[in-house]
């Protein structure tokens, strides 16, 4: 009976090992497909991704690609992708959804353009750091960003984003750095679980609220200025009339 139990335990152990192997194979192939899709979706006029050659089938070969960091040098599982300042062009690469083990993405200071996906959490939902600053992204920020619950850093400054900041972003408990300076955002800044400095919201002409000026202060200033102008004109006209008498 002990021997039969031992055989069952051995069989179970083998099954677990096989399942883990299948899972790892699936994950690593998914990460490889992610990089292939990323390369295909972006224009690379400077040939910055020349090292991304997929003929090699050895374990860990993608870890030698420019801008790719792996969890382990001998395993095709992506930890971070850092492709800053490479002159890359094109839309937001939706193939990133296949990078299932990635925690950090830096595509800053490129020429990426177009709107960000409305279901952006589907592509970057497990990231802890996302830097899309200094590009040419347009359109509004999606409320779906509230589902990126692992984000510690979200940098979107230096784009051409419009509309308001979704209130859900401010409720991300892990979000320590959020920057949207230098866009075309408008409306009231929502409260943040972790307050942000004013420079992270600077150079958005229509943006207001803490930590920037109150949303009604500019309107009040305009009202005061218009009233002062009205009083001045009235006094001036009265003075002219007196002189004419």
Automatic annotation (TrEMBL):
<keyword id="KW-0433">Leucine-rich repeat</keyword>
<dbReference type="InterPro" id="IPR032675">
    <property type="entry name" value="LRR_dom_sf"/>
</dbReference>
<keyword id="KW-1133">Transmembrane helix</keyword>
<dbReference type="InterPro" id="IPR050647">
    <property type="entry name" value="Plant_LRR-RLKs"/>
</dbReference>
<dbReference type="Pfam" id="PF08263">
    <property type="entry name" value="LRRNT_2"/>
</dbReference>
<protein>
    <recommendedName>
        <fullName>Leucine-rich repeat-containing N-terminal plant-type domain-containing protein</fullName>
    </recommendedName>
</protein>
<keyword id="KW-0325">Glycoprotein</keyword>
<keyword id="KW-0677">Repeat</keyword>
<dbReference type="InterPro" id="IPR013210">
    <property type="entry name" value="LRR_N_plant-typ"/>
</dbReference>
<keyword id="KW-0732">Signal</keyword>
<keyword id="KW-0812">Transmembrane</keyword>
<dbReference type="InterPro" id="IPR001611">
    <property type="entry name" value="Leu-rich_rpt"/>
</dbReference>
<dbReference type="Pfam" id="PF00560">
    <property type="entry name" value="LRR_1"/>
</dbReference>
<feature type="signal peptide">
    <location>
        <begin position="1"/>
        <end position="27"/>
    </location>
</feature>
<feature type="transmembrane region" description="Helical">
    <location>
        <begin position="226"/>
        <end position="244"/>
    </location>
</feature>
<dbReference type="GO" id="GO:0033612">
    <property type="term" value="F:receptor serine/threonine kinase binding"/>
</dbReference>
<feature type="domain" description="Leucine-rich repeat-containing N-terminal plant-type">
    <location>
        <begin position="29"/>
        <end position="71"/>
    </location>
</feature>
<keyword id="KW-0472">Membrane</keyword>
<dbReference type="GO" id="GO:0016020">
    <property type="term" value="C:membrane"/>
</dbReference>
């Amino acid at each position: 009976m002990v021997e039969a139990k031992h055989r069952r335990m051995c069989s179970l152990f083998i099954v677990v090992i096989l399942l883990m192997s299948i899972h790892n194979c699936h994950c690593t192939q998914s990460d490889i497909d992610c990089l292939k899709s990323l390369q295909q979706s972006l224009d690379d006029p400077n040939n910055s991704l020349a090292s991304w050659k997929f003929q090699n089938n050895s374990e860990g070969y993608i870890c030698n690609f420019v801008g790719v960091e792996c969890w382990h040098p001998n395993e095709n599982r992506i930890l971070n992708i850092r492709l800053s300042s490479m002159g890359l062009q094109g839309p937001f690469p939706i193939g990133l959804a296949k990078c299932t083990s990635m925690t950090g993405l830096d595509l800053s200071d490129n020429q990426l353009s177009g709107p960000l996906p409305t279901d952006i959490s589907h592509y970057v939902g497990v990231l802890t750091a996302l830097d899309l600053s200094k590009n040419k992204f347009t359109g509004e920020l999606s409320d779906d960003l509230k589902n990126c619950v692992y984000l510690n850093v979200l940098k979107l400054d230096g784009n051409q984003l419009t509309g308001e900041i979704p209130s859900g972003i401010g409720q991300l408990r892990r979000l320590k750095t959020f920057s949207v300076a230098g866009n075309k955002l408008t409306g009231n800044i929502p409260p943040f679980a972790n307050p942000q400095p004013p420079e992270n919201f600077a150079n958005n002409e229509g943006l207001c609220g803490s930590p920037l000026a109150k949303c009604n202060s500019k309107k009040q200033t305009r009202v005061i200025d218009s009233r002062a102008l009205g009083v001045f004109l009235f006094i001036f006209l009265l003075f002219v009339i007196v002189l004419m008498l």
